[in-house]
Amino acid sequence: xxxxxxxPTRPPPPPGPLQVAPDAPxxxxxxxxxxxxxxxxxxxxxxxxxxxxxxxxxxAAPAEADITVTAHAAGTADDPSSARRLSLxxxxxxxxxxxxxxxxxxxxxxxALGASAPASAGEPADRxxxxxxxTARPAK
Length: 140
Description:
The chain is an alpha+beta fold. Helix content is 24%, strand content 21%. A five-stranded mixed β-sheet has the order 1-2-5-3-4, with helices on one face. The two termini are 27 Å apart. The mean pLDDT is 85.
């Protein structure tokens, strides 16, 4: 019989510094099941109104509900990775606020789509949609 494997257990690292700036462009609008946050082109900072709306969503979320953070960013066909990295940075900034408000990271699903899912007519390209609800999980 092989010896048991020892795995160190450590608490998860704290979230990084929150990127909230009073002069950050963007808006917050309600959508079905959550919020839509918009950003300035190439910007990852949240304005205080968006950060406050995220905090309110985190406090109002049911304890068993999962939160999906779907981030998009404008990009060009010749450099899709830049848009994906930008959307990931935005999604992680949103995730950081949710974690700071007590939402377990295990309940947050981050999807950084970059420019791979083009905006429909009337939808901003530089946006993050945050929705709450049940998420399909493997049975325990």
